[in-house]
Amino acid sequence: MGKTLVGKVALVTGGSRGIGAAIAKRLAEEGADVAISYVASAQKAEDVVRELQGQGVRAAAFQADQAHPAEVTALVQAAAKHFGKLDILVNSAGVFVTGVVGDPSSDVAAFDKQFAINVGGVAAAVRAAVPLLSDGGRIISIGTTGASRAPFAGIGDYVASKAAVAAYTRAWARDLGPRGITVNIVQPGAIDTDMNPANSAHASALTQLAALGRYGRPEELAAAVAFLAGPDASYITGTTLNVDGGQTT
C-alpha cells in the first residue's frame, strides 16, 4: 500500500514526546514533511526530528509556548515559511492539571494556564493556520473522552478545556467546509505515555473501564490521526473519533 501523504506538510504541536511524537512519526511514515513544536525539551525535539528525517522526509522543530498566542502564531507562520506551505495542522500540545472544585489548596493559576494552553493555544494555532492552509487541508485536535463523561473527581477543569475544543471543532468544520478543509477531533482514552504510564497507581482502574481491558499505545492513536489526515477521510468533518478501547461504550 502506498504512502498517503507524500507532498504534504504537517505541523504537530507538542511533537517532541508522547502522543505528539507518535503522530509526527506516523505522518512521516506516510510521506509528509513534518514540523513539530516544543516548549523546553529541545534535545527531545531534535531527537524526534532526526528520526523523522530517517524516514526520508524533511523535518524541523520550533520552540513555542502554547500558553502565549503570539508565540503560537509565530510558530505556525515559521513552519509554513520553512516548508513553503502548510497542509495539515495537528493540535497535540496540552497539559493535565487536576483538582476538586472549591478545594482551597487548588492551584487556580495552574488551572488558568491549563485553559490557556488547551483552549487558547489551539484557537491561536487554527486562526494562524487558516490563511496558510491549502484548500482541502486538515485540522485535527487531540481531546479526551472525558469531554463527554467524567469518570473521576477532580478533572473538571481539564475535561472542560477539551470539551471546548470539541465544540470549536464542530463550529470550525462549518466555517471551513467551503474550502474543503476538514476539522476533526480524536479523543483518546488511557494511552501509555510518560504522562500517563500503564504502570501508574491509577492504571488498574483505567484499564477496567476499557472494553479491551488494556491501555492504548500512542501508535494506535497516531494511526487514527493519519487516517483523518489522508485522502480516504475527505468526507469526514466535524467528527469526534474516540480511540479508547471501548471505554465509552
UniProtKB/TrEMBL annotation:
Pfam families: adh_short_C2 (PF13561). The keyword Transmembrane helix does not apply. Coiled coil: none annotated. Keywords: Oxidoreductase. Residues 8-194 form the Ketoreductase domain. InterPro entries: KR_dom, NAD(P)-bd_dom_sf, SDR_fam. The keyword Metal-binding does not apply. One of its GO terms (molecular function) is oxidoreductase activity. Belongs to the short-chain dehydrogenases/reductases (SDR) family. This is 3-oxoacyl-[acyl-carrier protein] reductase.
